Structures
1.
Amino acid sequence: MVVRQGSTLQLRSGCPINLSLEVLGDRWSLIVVRDIIFGDRRHFRELLTQSEEGISSNILADRLRTLVDAGVLSRTDDPRHKQKVSYSLTERGIQLVPVLAQLAGWGVRHLPVSDELGIRARILDEGGPPLWSRFMDELRWMHLGSPRPAGPSVFDDLQAAYLAAAAKSARTR
Amino acid sequence: MVVRQGSTLQLRSGCPINLSLEVLGDRWSLIVVRDIIFGDRRHFRELLTQSEEGISSNILADRLRTLVDAGVLSRTDDPRHKQKVSYSLTERGIQLVPVLAQLAGWGVRHLPVSDELGIRARILDEGGPPLWSRFMDELRWMHLGSPRPAGPSVFDDLQAAYLAAAAKSARTR
DNA sequence: CCAAACTGATTGCATATTGCAAGTGGTTTA
DNA sequence: TAAACCACTTGCAATATGCAATCAGTTTGG
C-alpha cells in the first residue's frame, strides 16, 4: 500500500479552483466532510461504519490526515477515553457548507438522487444563503464552542426531514 | 493503459453529494469545465495546451468522454473543418457556475491563490447569485444559441479584470 | 478480574487510475 | 506537395484505491 502521506499541496497552479481541487478533488474527501457536517460523526469508527458509501479504513485514515493537514478538520484526543479521538470542523471546514449545498443542489437537479437522501439538498436549496448562514452559526457552536445561536436548529430540522422522508419511502416500499 | 471507459455511474449511493462526486470528483473534470466556462476553450487542442495545469492528452480525452456521457458537455463536429470537434456546455454544465463560484470563493479565502488568478473568484464572490445568473444567461447565448442577453458582458468583464491583474503583477515582478 | 468488544489506525496484496512521451491516420494550410 | 495541425490512442511506469486481515492498547460486562 502506498497512500498519499504528506498531503503536500501539489501546486499545479495558483488558481483558486485548482487549489480547492488539490485539497478536495477526489471521491472521498467531501464525503467525509459531509458526514461530519450533516451526520455529526465525530469519531473514526462512526465515519467508517455509518456512511452510505462504505469507505475503507485505510482511505479514511488517509483522508482524515489530509483534511487535518489542510486545516479543514481538527483532531483532538477525547480526555474521558484515552483511545478516542474527536474530529471537528474548523472555520475553514464550516465554510464548505455553501460549496456542499451547491454541489448537492446540482446533484439533486441533474442526477438520479433518491427521495430520502435528496430531501436535505432540496431544503438547503430552497433556504439559500440565509439558511446556510444560520446552519454555519450552528456548526460554529457545535464544533468551535461559539455561543449557541437562538431559534430553531437547522441541523435538527434537516435531520427530522430526512427521517420523515426515509420513513415515508420505507412505507411505500 | 486502462482508463475509465464506460464512465458508468458507480452508484455507491443515491446521495446528491455522492452522485455529484461520482461525476465530478477528481482532479481534472472541473478544471476542464472551468476552462470551457471562463476561458471559452472549445477544442481539444485549446484545452490541452492553454490550461495552467498541463493536463495530459489521454486524461483529457477520457474526461471529455466522461463529461459528455454525463450530459455536462456536448460534442459536435465542426462543419467547416472535417477534423475539428467542438465541445459546448449543456444546460447541466452551465448550472455548474454556482458550484465553481463557491469552490473558487472558498479557495480564494483559504488557500494560497495568486493575485491574478484570484481576481475572477473575488469578482464572482462579490457579485453573488445575481452576477452568476447573468453569467449563466450569457453562457446560454454562447453555448446553446439562446438570445443574447442585454447589458455588459460578464465574461468580458471577468476577462478584462484578469488581464489587468496579470499585467499589474507582471509589472511589479 | 479477565475475556470480549471496541479504539484509531496499519499492512499486504491485487487492481485501477494517472502521468508522460511517442505515435496514429487523417485534414488543412502555406 | 510538404509542413503543420487535428482529435485522439498506445505503451509503460508510477501512483492511488479497495479489500481483508491485523495491531496494540483501552474499556466494558459478567
2.
Amino acid sequence: MDANTSRKNRHVTIVDVARESGVSYSTVSRVLSGFEFVKDETRQRVLNAAQRLGYVVNIGARSLAGGKSKIIGVLVPGLDNGYIGEIARGIDEELSRVNYDLMVYTTHRHQGKELTYARAIANGLTDGLLLIVPLVRDYLQAFQEQQFPYVLIDQGDPTNRSHVVDSTNWQGAYEATKYLIELGHQRIGIITGLMEITSAGERLEGYKSALTDHNIAFDPDLVAIGDFWQPSAYQAALDLMSLKNPPTAIFASNDLSAFGAMEAVRESGLRIPEDVSIIGFDDVPQAALVHPKLTTVRQPLDQIGRVAVRMLLEQIDNPGHPPRRVTLATRLVVRDSCASRP
Amino acid sequence: MDANTSRKNRHVTIVDVARESGVSYSTVSRVLSGFEFVKDETRQRVLNAAQRLGYVVNIGARSLAGGKSKIIGVLVPGLDNGYIGEIARGIDEELSRVNYDLMVYTTHRHQGKELTYARAIANGLTDGLLLIVPLVRDYLQAFQEQQFPYVLIDQGDPTNRSHVVDSTNWQGAYEATKYLIELGHQRIGIITGLMEITSAGERLEGYKSALTDHNIAFDPDLVAIGDFWQPSAYQAALDLMSLKNPPTAIFASNDLSAFGAMEAVRESGLRIPEDVSIIGFDDVPQAALVHPKLTTVRQPLDQIGRVAVRMLLEQIDNPGHPPRRVTLATRLVVRDSCASRP
DNA sequence: TTGAAAGCGCTAACAA
DNA sequence: TTGTTAGCGCTTTCAA
C-alpha cells in the first residue's frame, strides 16, 4: 500500500489494468471475462498487470452492465438447523467448484419477506435462485415470464413449470410406516409437517398407504398436525399420548419433530423405544447423536443441494431449458429408537 | 403482468417511478433513499407510485453510484456446524431489524480463498464484513487503510486495531478445568483447537493456569493438538487414551471436539462419565442431545453474532470509530458427561 | 424543494 | 484481434 494506492477510498479498475498493460480497457474486459479471441500475448500481459495491481472485479458494475454476477441466491427459512446446514453444504461445495458466490436470504417463514426477497433477488444481483421449502410460490410465474432461473428444493410446483429437486417422500414415509408395522405396531401416530409444503402431504399419504396396504384402518385421531419444528411436534406428541387409546409408535415427518416427540414421550413417563417407538425423516447429523439414536428415513441432503445447483447452472447457461424434476432416493436408517410392539 | 411489463426482461426503475409520479428521477432517488428535504406530498406520491409499480432497488447500481448496498458479508469456514449456525442466527436476527441482507462466503479454511474473498468483498458489494474465526489476517491492514468496516468474531487481532467480539475463553477454560479438578481429577487431558485461532491459545492457557493454581503439574503429554473438528479430536483422544498413564478427564476445546473424544473413549472400551469425564466448550444445540448430555462451557453464540452486527453498523454509520473489543461472559453448563474421579 | 447532469465500473455491440 | 462507445440504474453535486 504505497502513497499511490492509499490515496482515497478508490479501487483498482479495469482502466488501471488497461493503462498498466497498454491496451484498451475493453480488451481487458474481454480477457477478464474469458473471451476467446484475444492474442495470447495480450492476454498474458493483461493477466499479469491485473495480478500485479491486485485487481478484483466489481460485481455491481458487472451485473449492471449486463454480465453475470456469478452470485446465486438461496432463500431459506433459517440457518439454525441441521437440515438446511446439510443442504447448504452441498450447495456450497458445488458452487465453489464453479466459482460462484452465495447470497443468503432468510425468511423465517415470514410470507411477506419471502415475496419481497424473491422480487429483490430477481432484480439484478443474482444470476439465479435456489428456493428451499418456500411457502409462497406466487412469484414463480413472474420468474418464468422473465426467464429468471430458479430451482425449488423440497417443494413442489403444482403447475409443473418449475425445476425441482426433492426426494422420495411418499416412498420414504411408506417404508417407515411399514417398518413400524412389521415390528408389530398397529396404532401408529403421525406428526405431520407444515401442510403448505408438498413434502408434508406426500409423507402423510405414504403413511396412509402403508396402513391401508397392511389392513390397518386409518384413524384420523392419530394424525397430529405439526410444522416441521420441534416445539409444535412436542405439543403434537403430547396430544397423541393423551389419547384414550394412544399410539405405540410415532412417525414424525422430520427429525426435528422426532426430537420434540421424544421429549414429550419421555415427559409422559414413557420409555423410548420400550414403550413407544419413534421414527423420523431426514437423517440430520444430530439424529445419530441423540439418545436413543434415531431411526429415520435418510434424505441425501447434501446431494439435493448439489443437484439443485447443477440444475440451476444448467438454466443459467442455457436459458429456456424445459423444467425438470429430479427425485432422489431415500433410505431407511435403522438405529435405536424403534422396537417391537410392547 | 400486462403486455407492458412482460415486454422483455426489464425491471421497474426509478425512471418508471418518476414518470408515474410526475417528478424527476432524482427526486425519486431522494425519496427512496430517505432524504429529508422533500415536500411531504411529493414523497407520498412517489412512494405510492413505487408501491404500485412494484419497484425494487437495484443494489448493484446503487452501490456503483456510491450508495450503501445494505448488504454485509460474512466470511465463515463452513455452514455445516452448530457453532456457525447459532452465530449466524444472531447475525441474521439483528440484520433483519435494520433491513440488511447477507452475503455468505465460505472459505472451508482455505487460506487463498479467504484472501481472495476478503478482497472481493471489500471491493464494492458489501458495506462491511463479519469475519468468523478467520485464519489469515493479512488483509486487515488494507481494510484499515480504506476505512472499510469489519468485525472479527472469535479471533483476536495482535495489533489491536480491529473491532472484535469474543467471549471469556481463558476464564471459561479455567472454570472447566477447575470443575474437573474439584471432581477429583488429577490427570486431565486437553484437546486443543486450531492453534492459529487465538481462542485456542487462550483456552489452553486457562487450562494450564487452573492446573497450576491447584498445584497440579502441567504435563505436556496430556496436551493433544486438535483443530476444532471432530475427526482430529477423535484421533487426539485416541492418542491421549493410549498413554501409559492416560487421563481420567478430558477438556475438549470445543463441543465438536468433545463429540470426537466421546467416540474415541467409547471405542477404547471405556464409559463416559464413569471411566472418563469429558467437558466441551461452546454449548452448541447438539450438546444437549448427545448421550450422555455434554457438560460444557456455554458461549452466548447468538449474542456474539448480534453484538458483532451492532459493532459493524456502528462503524458503517460512523466511519473511523475507534476499535473496540467486546468480550462476553461464558458460563459452565453442567450436564451428564462428567463425574468424580473413578 | 426540485431538476439536470456527471459519473460509478463494466459489458457488449459496432467499427476498424 | 483490438479499440470506441453507448448505456446499465443509481447517487450526488450543482443550479435553479
